[in-house]
Amino acid sequence: MYYKKRGQAWGFDLMAAMVIFITGIIIFYFYTINTPLETGQILNTLSREGEIVANAILSEGFPENWNEQNVISPGILTKNKINDTKLERFNNLTINNYPKTKALFNTKYEYYAFVSENFTINNQQIIGIGNIPLNDKNLIKISRLTVYRNKPIIFNLEIWE
Description:
By secondary structure, the chain is of the alpha+beta class. It has helices at 10-57, 84-96, 98-104, and strands at 77-78, 81-82, 110-115, 119-121, 124-126, 129-130, 140-148, 151-160.
């Protein structure tokens, strides 16, 4: 009698499955290593940019008595106190040309400035200046102590992607 060997070639299938499985593990490994680093870099960049924007806003600006036409760097302080005129000019500049303010601050990120008590401009309550954050993805908040109408207040700046 003549017997034929019949069987499966499972060795090749097993090797192909192992290659696919190991490739998947390697891709997952590199993805999980790189993601936290990228997020950390974004947050560091946002923090740095936020400090620059906050410093610019909490300065006297340039030129010292700037307006919407001649502004190089908008600032809201005079003698280390918030100046109502500069605050109103900054608010108007932000309302009329928000992209210009981002260019003046040399940032590509969105920002929103507000204080612990609401600003009052022309007897109107102003909650904040800038874009209200609708997305809190990678949002950084910077707080500074300053003086507004002879009272200490906390100036806050939120900056995000």
